[in-house]
From TrEMBL:
CDD domains the record matches: TlpA_like_family (cd02966)
Protein's UniProt name: Redoxin domain protein
Keywords: Membrane, Transmembrane, Transmembrane helix
SUPFAM superfamilies: Thioredoxin-like (SSF52833)
One Gene Ontology MF term: oxidoreductase activity
Superkingdom in the source lineage: Bacteria
Thioredoxin domain segment(s): 25-165
TM ranges: 6-24
The keyword Membrane is assigned to this record: yes
Organism lineage: Bacteria, Pseudomonadati, Pseudomonadota, Betaproteobacteria, Burkholderiales
Cited InterPro entries: Redoxin, Thioredoxin-like_sf, Thioredoxin_domain, Thioredoxin_ResA/DsbE_sf
Length: 167
């Protein structure tokens, strides 16, 4: 019985540790020096985004949570864009490009959309496999929080406001 309780405790502790890392990451570590190919064929690098607070969102058209969160991502972008906030939605490598283009056009996404054709971007950002996964990057290019699943948008807005207020 003691072994079962110990094993259950270790399992719970491991789950909490992984959850804390994924959901409460406030590491401040440098974002990968990635270059994204946007739907219009142009390129956007993380270096280009320095000086802005940026949300990098990995998503897929066949992900119901991703589709459901897109209106809130668009509203967040619209609310803060003029203050120095940007959003970059990165479609996963398995997502057919025609689906991504159609999704972005029919929903009139106001932010930049890229396709990770090779999967290298997902690998660079911590081997992202679950969607949606988002990273909030400060003006210095540091990841200050990551989210697996849809974020708590009121809490995200408060954090964006704090980061925008920083020099």
């Amino acid at each position: 019985m003691a072994i079962k309780q110990w094993a259950a405790g270790v399992t719970v502790a491991a789950f909490v540790a992984v959850g804390a890392y994924l959901y409460l990451d406030m590491g401040g570590h440098a974002a990968p020096e990635s270059t994204f190919v946007l739907l219009d064929g142009s390129r956007q690098s993380m270096a280009d985004l320095r000086g802005k607070v940026t949300l990098v969102n990995f998503w897929a058209t066949n992900c119901s949570t991703c589709v459901a969160e897109m209106p809130a991502l668009a509203a967040t972008y619209d609310k803060y864009h003029t203050q120095g906030f940007d959003t970059l939605a990165v479609a996963m490598s398995y997502d057919p490009p025609s689906y991504v283009v159609n999704f972005a056009a029919t929903r009139k996404l106001p932010f930049k959309v890229a396709i990770d054709n090779t999967g290298q971007l997902a690998r660079d950002w911590g081997d992202v496999r679950l969607t949606p996964t988002s990273f909030l990057v400060n003006k210095r290019g540091e990841v200050v929080k990551s989210f697996v699943g849809a974020p708590d948008f009121p809490a995200l807005h408060r954090l964006i406001e704090q980061l925008l207020a920083q020099s």
